[in-house]
Amino acid sequence: MTEDNIILEIKDLKKHYYKGKLKAVEDVSVNVNKGDVLVIIGPSGSGKSTLLRCMNMLEEPTSGSILFHGRDITKKYTVDENGKKVKLDIDSIREHMGMVFQHFNLFSHKTVLQNMVMAPVKVKGMDPDDAAKKAMDLLKRVGLEDRADNYPIQLSGGQKQRIAIVRALMMEPEVMLFDEPTSALDPEMVGEVLDVMKGLAKEGMTMVVVTHEMGFAREVGNRIVFMSDGSLLEEGSPSEIFNSPKNERLRDFLSKVL
Amino acid sequence: MITVEGFEKTFRYMSMFWQGMGTTVALSLLTVFFGFILALILALMRLSKFKVLKALSSAYVEIFRATPLLVQLFIVYYILFDGIALPGIKLFGFIRFDRFVPGVVALSLNSGAYLCEIIRAGIQSIDIGQTEAARSLGLNRVQTLKLVVLPQAIKNILPAIANEFVTIIKESSICYTIGVQEIMYTVASVKGATFSIGEPLLVATAIYFCLTFPTSKVIQYFERRMSRGDRR
Ligand SMILES: Nc1ncnc2c1ncn2[C@@H]1O[C@H](COP(=O)(O)OP(=O)(O)O)[C@@H](O)[C@H]1O
Ligand SMILES: [Mg+2]
After folding, report:
1. N or C end: fewer C-beta atoms under 10 angstroms in chain B?
2. What is the ipTM of this complex?
């Protein structure tokens, strides 16, 4: 594996709350390689969301490092090749990482199309017409082109989440982070969202997915990590994790969810 | 004693009441406008990550909310504007500039403190998920505030801002004490000319009511309509 194939390198990550009384993430090290579909599983409260949200610095880690293409994004300042101190521009890093939330978080005062074009136009300086065209193409891909002028409130949960995914794709991210994207959905809508995610994985998108959908994890994931009480207890391929789990707590967890 | 005769005499000065009403409305509109801008700055200071700005904003709000408006008005008029010679011109022929401006300034400074709390609450009522989504797309803090948070917050607090306008219409009567020729000043003038106080006061009451009551009702109507729209 060459250096360039590693998108995210997480080393000894800790995230503590209440002055260390609550260890949400404790000494987690994991890499995200190009093309990976890394699935994070574990009981609720085990630190999955916190780990994921640290990856794009929505949460500030207590200690440890997160290298994005070799650059530590947990440090406010880094030193460049010439030994000069440069301030880290976290916004320009986040551009390259899409994120999809459990509760969709579409901008409620904007239409679907406006939701999608805002970031490319304002952050990348993309031409508004080009952005709109690109948005319509993406909407077609998820079968929602007739919803372009709707407001989020007029959409079902499944539709909202599909929009949230294509909104993130508008920025052409290198990696997509999903935090339980189907947990807030009615059961009949889970499939439509998972289908979009499967499509993305098939196209080679690098993804990190926190989910309770074990079927998805087994079928689409190429690496699974299991977290419990803030620690990463086991990592492996889907067959290793699901067919021959080693860790006691993982076995216990699987017996409950499968 | 209220008499028909007294009303007849008072009604002869109706044009003065209309001018007083115009002054009151102008005073209140300008106060909401400048008060809002000031409040927005104060609210952003309050929510910023710089401790000094936070402290300054809190101190401002606390001081202005803990002291009487009359005291603030006098300080502005007699101390702040003491050395400033405003031109003695009349706007529209009846608004005395040198009295009106200190009035607007004092009311705006006061209203800014109250509106600041309204705006702050409005910003904090916006789901943090909206900010997180914006930041995750690469928008910076300022863009997130300008494009995502503030438009939603301000829409939510429009009724509260309109209510503040109603409050200011009533409180602006205090400006009569520094010689702003608004509704209450008209009452005093008409009293001087007609030697009766009751009738001019009742006319003033009716004008205030006609200004504030319909405005409140319109606000309530929109408030109800908006809360219906927000239900999911
Ligand atoms: N902002 C926060 N403040 C305090 N505690 C938090 C915060 N966010 C998460 N936690 C705590 O950290 C632990 C891990 O949370 P989380 O990462 O959301 O777990 P998961 O996503 O696996 O359900 C939980 O105990 C949770 O209560
Ligand atoms: Mg979670």
Report:
1. C
2. 0.94
Give the mutation candidate from A91, A116, A154, A161 for the B interface (greatest B CB count, under 10 A): A91
Is A123's CB within 8 Å of B135's CB? Answer: no
For residues B47 and B49, what is the distance between their CA atoms, to the nearest angstrom? 7
User: Residue A158 in 3-state DSSP?
Assistant: helix
Phi/psi at A196 (5° precision): -60, -40
**Contact yes or no for A222/A235 (Cβ under 8 A):** no
Pairing of strands A231-236, B90-91: unpaired
DSSP secondary structure, B86-150, as one string: ----EETTTEEHHHHHHHHHHHHHHHHHHHHHHHHHHHHTS-HHHHHHHHHTT--HHHIIIIIIH
The partner residues of A78 in beta bridges, in order of sequence, read A86
B8-12, long-range: CB within 8 Å, 24+ apart, which pairs?
Answer: B9/B194, B9/B196, B9/B199, B10/B190, B10/B194, B10/B196, B10/B199, B10/B200, B10/B203, B11/B203
Ligand 1 atom at minimum distance from A43 CA: 22
Residue A85 dihedral angles phi and psi, to the nearest 5°: -80, 125
Are residues A139 and A112 in contact, defined by beta-carbon separation less than 8 angstroms? yes
In order along its 258 residues, chain A shows pLDDT tens digits of 455 799 999 999 999 999 999 999 999 999 999 999 999 999 999 999 999 999 999 999 999 999 999 999 999 887 778 888 889 999 999 999 999 999 999 999 999 999 999 999 999 999 999 999 999 999 999 999 999 999 999 999 999 999 999 999 999 999 999 999 999 999 999 999 999 999 999 999 999 999 999 999 999 999 999 999 999 999 999 999 999 999 999 999 999 998
Separation of CA B37 from chain center: 12
Atom of ligand 1 nearest to the CA of A210: 21
Distance separating alpha carbons of residues B29 and B196, to the nearest angstrom = 31
With 0-12 / 13-18 / 19 or more C-beta atoms within 10 angstroms meaning exposed / middle / buried, residue A76 is exposed
Q: Which token pair is A152?
A: 């989020």
If phi over 0 gives left and psi between -120 and 50 gives alpha, with beta otherwise, what is residue B139? beta
Q: Does an H or E element contain B209, and which?
A: helix B198-230
Q: 3-class SS at B218?
A: helix
In angstroms, how far is CA B138 from the centroid of its own chain?
38
What's the predicted TM-score (pTM) here? 0.88
Element (DSSP H or E) covering residue B220? helix B198-230
CA distance A132 to chain B (A): 17
The fold adopted by the segment(s) B4-231 is MetI-like fold (1.10.3720)
Question: Is B135 in the A-facing interface, judged by CB distances under 8 Å?
Answer: yes
Distance from chain centroid for Cα A105: 14
